[in-house]
């Protein structure tokens, strides 16, 4: 991560200025956002799964919006938000286990709880999104903290 120190004549102090995030974090945030969009849309692709419908819509939508927000921050020259990406990683892990937590019964009121395709989609997509989000948060957290001179921690 490239950073430089600049003197602020108004404050009389030296501040670390971020020169931008690596392109990999930008594109990985975009990929995670698209995974969130897929998670929100997947109940409609795999058929009726009433118990998982709202879970996928809410959590997938949140992943889409939060990762999209981080992508927007990066393309507008703001630093990656480690808190946002950590929350995305936790939401993605919820998607991995939600099928087992919510879909314990085979059928509720004659409706299938979740199809096997939806369950595997949630598990695989959640694992990928969690791994990518955790990596983005980790990589962003390794930078020099704001307010310290470059080369010191």
UniProtKB/TrEMBL annotation:
Origin organism lineage: Archaea, Methanobacteriati, Methanobacteriota, Stenosarchaea group, Halobacteria
KW Lyase (keyword) present: no
Record keywords, A-Z: Membrane, Transmembrane, Transmembrane helix
Pfam families per the UniProt record, alphabetical: SPW (PF03779)
Domain SPW repeat-containing integral membrane: 27-134
Organism annotation: Natrinema altunense (strain JCM 12890 / CGMCC 1.3731 / AJ2)
Region called Disordered, residue ranges: 1-24
Name the UniProt record assigns to this protein: SPW repeat-containing integral membrane domain-containing protein
Biased composition (Basic and acidic residues): 14-24
Transmembrane segments: 27-46, 52-72, 84-107, 119-138
Claim: Membrane is one of the keywords in the record: yes
